Amino acid sequence: MDEFSGRTATLLHSSQRRHLRMVTRSGPRRFQLVRHEDVSGVSGTGVVAEGVEWSDGTVALRWGGCFPTTTVWQDGIDALLTVHGHNGRTTIRWLDK
C-alpha cells in the first residue's frame, strides 16, 4: 500500500518492466560538456556542464550557471549531443580513460 495515497500498489508484469542494457565496460566515466560557440546566447562558452556516463550507457548531466539543473539521458551520449551538440559546436571532453 502506498503510504501517501492509501492506494494498493500494483507491480508491472515482467513484459512491461524496463531492464538495464547490457553493460559493455566496467565503471562510470566522467566528462565535461564543452561549448565552443554559444549559438543560443544563453550558456556561454567553455565548460557548461559536467557529466557521468554509467556502464550501461545512461548519462547523467549537471548543468552549471545561474540555474543549475541535472538531466538524465537514458539513450546516452549520442542523444545528448543530438540535442545539445549544436552541430559540433559543443563537444565531450572525457576526464576518465
What brief labels describe this structure?
97 residues, mainly beta, 5-stranded antiparallel β-sheet, 1 helix, 5 strands, globular
Q: Would you give an account of this structure?
A:
- With 97 residues, this protein is mostly beta strands.
- 9% of the residues lie in helices and 31% in strands.
- It has one helix spanning 76-84; strands at 29-35, 46-53, 59-63, 69-73, 90-94.
- Strands 4-3-2-1-5 form a 5-stranded antiparallel sheet, covered by helices on one side.
- Strand 3 (59-63) and strand 4 (69-73) form a beta hairpin.
- The chain starts with 28 loop residues before the first strand and ends with a strand.
- Mean pLDDT is 82; it is low at 1-5 and 13-17.
Residue runs with pLDDT of under 50 for 5 or more positions: 1-5, 13-17
**Average pLDDT, all residues:** 82
Shape: globular
Order of helices and strands: EEEEHE
What does the main sheet amount to?
5 strands, antiparallel
Beta fraction of the residues? 25-35%
| Tally of individual helices | 1
End-to-end distance, in Å?
45 Å
Alpha-beta content class: mainly beta
Helix content: under 10%
Please report the total strand number as a whole number: 5
What is the alpha-carbon Rg in Å? Answer: 17 Å
Strand order of the largest sheet: 4-3-2-1-5
Summarize the structure.
This protein has one helix spanning 76-84, and strands spanning 29-35, 46-53, 59-63, 69-73, 90-94.
